[in-house]
Amino acid sequence: MTLHSADSSHSADSSHSADSSHSADSSHGADSLHARAVAALRAWDPGPGEQDSLRHAFLSYLAARRDGCRRSCVPGHLTASMLLLDDAREHALLTLHPRVGLWLQLGGHCEDGDLSLADAASREGTEESGIDGITVDPRPLHLAVHPITCSLGVPTRHLDVRFIGVAPPGAVPRRSAESVDLAWWPVGTLLAGDRPEVAPDLTALTTAALARTSSRTG
User: Fold this and answer.
1) Domain positions in the chain
2) Per-residue model confidence (pLDDT) at position 12
3) Are 111 and 29 within 8 A, CB to CB?
4) Which residues, at least 6 apart from 210, have a Cβ–Cβ distance to it below 8 Å?
5) What mean pLDDT comes out for the span 62-70?
6) What are phi and psi of 143, to 5 degrees?
7) The predicted structure's pLDDT at residue 30
8) Is residue 81 packed enough to be buried (19+ CB in 10 Å), middle (13-18) or exposed (0-12)?
9) How far is residue 43's CA from residue 169's CA, in Å, rounded to a whole number?
10) What are the φ and ψ backbone dihedral angles of 84, each rounded to 5 degrees?
11) Does domain 29-217 correspond to CATH entry 3.90.79.10?
12) Which of 37, 84, 150, 200 could potentially form a cystine with 93 if both were Cys, beta carbons 3.0 to 4.6 Å apart?
């Protein structure tokens, strides 16, 4: 009985140690992501206007909330998404989101293993599109805030940091369980902004994406 008790104690200590180690690793990962999110937003210059105001608001929120990149942060948390363009930059891959009921860009919550917001956007884009080899510009492209009841099950806000991704030539998307449907939308349709089934801010996001890609290729 003494041996059994000692083994149980050792097992409990080991379990506690493992739990503590996992908690510490998760906390360290979240701290690193928080620091890199702050660095990325500080380095990005969207020019004067609404986007720069949002950039300062995001930075202020992160200064107040060390857990601001974690989905467990109930008042609101940063998310990462990407507008995924085809290789010709003529179409964007959108997902029909089951919770929102609109066609959106790919993206979602940050995870403990994400090294940066761009890394989170790349992971989400790959998971949701089924496309490997996506090229992601690590600079933020666009910011937005929207209220939502997400997987937390309570009303919160997503402070979404958007990036631009480009699929390799001939990429064929494969729908995941996270979306109702996937489709390539002509960028001209998104620029027109007259489709009620598409999230309204995709017009501004697409405009920013095309301006970014034009400046890189021009």
Assistant:
1) 29-217
2) 43
3) no
4) 89, 187, 191
5) 96
6) -125, 150
7) 65
8) buried
9) 31
10) -95, 115
11) yes
12) 84
3-state secondary structure 156-173: EEEEEEEEEEECCCCCCC
Exposure of 59 in the CB half-sphere (CA atoms within 13 A): 13
Q: pLDDT by residue (tens digit) across 87-128?
A: 999 999 999 988 888 999 999 999 989 999 999 999 999 999
How far apart are alpha carbons 105 and 75 in whole angstroms?
Answer: 23
Distance CA 95, CA 109 (A): 15
For the beta carbon of residue 185, count every other beta carbon within 10 angstroms: 16
Any alpha helices (H) in 48-199, and if so which ranges? 50-64, 117-129, 187-192
CA angle 149, 151, 153 (to 5 degrees): 55
Q: For the chain, how many residues are written?
A: 218
